[in-house]
Amino acid sequence: MGRRVHWLESTASTNDVAARLAESGAEEGTTVVAESQTAGRGRHGHVWFSPPGAGLYLSVIVRPGTGLDSDQNPANLLTLASGVAIAEAVRAVTGLPAEIKWPNDVLIGRRKLAGILAEAAMQAGIPEFVIIGVGLNLQSAAYPPQLAPHVTSIEAETTRPADRALVLAEILAALGERFADLRARRFDVILSAWRRLSPSLPGALVEWDSKTGIVRGYAQDIDRHGALLVRVGATVERVVAGEVRWVGRE
Ligand code: BTN
């Protein structure tokens, strides 16, 4: 990861730049980093606030090839593995108790420090490449008022400026290690690291919108596909898509 890094002053979205590079044959691990993004995006069409210098905005090209079982969704598993890598990298560089909130938020306490957006380019049902986009808050910024109470940054938590290059290097090293686990089909290793880094998940009250209205239940675990398992009454439901709201942790 990161043997080739494209460093940009400003771009719309590093995920788009990385996808264009991947389409023209860039190798796995090629990384795009921007000082700011003018159209940074998060999951579910959300905007990712990306002012200059306040965050690390990076995208990495992954070519999963045939390393996964045919019933496994590479973007989901790469997202899980990336969450583990980012939380581990933050812990290693800062000593902060970073945790993962399913599927891919990295939190300190209840505040979001980093998010991951995995976007797959499929060809005949097989992922040609996946772009792993990571946004990580390095220092406080003038966040929109509705966002401010829910986000934090490395500088806000440690009261020291974050070493951007060190954080980037540690993230790339951790992503490389966790993707190697994935490629070697060490799913159990990734899942147990994920569970360790997500200690608040079991028993958390969650809800989501279904065709028949709001469904509520208690999160139990994740399965080998990365789906969330939620106890609803007497049954256990798998949640793979949609926006789960964490009622018990808000
Ligand atoms: C989320 O939590 O919703 C995911 C946020 C992902 C943001 C990063 S910043 C770098 C890359 N480029 C984008 O446009 N998005 C991702």
Structure characteristics:
five-stranded antiparallel beta sheet, binds biotin
Structure write-up:
The chain has helices at residues 14-23, 74-94, 154-158, 164-183, 187-196; strands at residues 5-11, 31-37, 55-62, 99-101, 105-108, 111-123, 126-137, 205-210, 213-222, 228-232, 235-239, 245-246. The chain has 250 residues and is an alpha+beta fold. The strands form two sheets. The chain has a seven-stranded mixed β-sheet. Strands 11-10-9-8-12 form a five-stranded antiparallel β-sheet, with no helix packed on it. The longest helix has 21 residues, at 74-94. It starts with a strand and ends with a strand. The chain binds biotin (BTN). Biotin binds next to helix 1, strand 3, strand 6 and strand 7.
Compact summary:
By secondary structure, the protein is an alpha+beta fold.
Bound molecule types? biotin
- Sheet-strand content, in percent, reads 25-35%
Task: Please provide the count of β strands.
Answer: 12
Order of helices and strands: EHEEHEEEEHHHEEEEE
Helix percent reads: 25-40%
Low-confidence regions: none
Number of helices: 5
CA-based gyration radius: 17 Å
Q: Overall mean pLDDT score?
A: 92
Strand order of the largest sheet: 1-2-3-7-6-5-4
Provide the structure class. alpha+beta
Cα separation of the termini? 35 Å
Largest sheet: 7 strands, mixed
Q: Indicate the overall shape.
A: globular
Secondary structure layout:
Blueprint (H helix, E strand, L loop, with lengths): L4 E7 L2 H10 L7 E7 L17 E8 L11 H21 L4 E3 L3 E4 L2 E13 L2 E12 L16 H5 L5 H20 L3 H10 L8 E6 L2 E10 L5 E5 L2 E5 L5 E2 L4
Parallel strand pairs: 1-2
Antiparallel strand pairs: 2-3, 3-7, 4-5, 5-6, 6-7, 8-9, 8-12, 9-10, 10-11
Helix pairs in contact: 2-4, 2-5
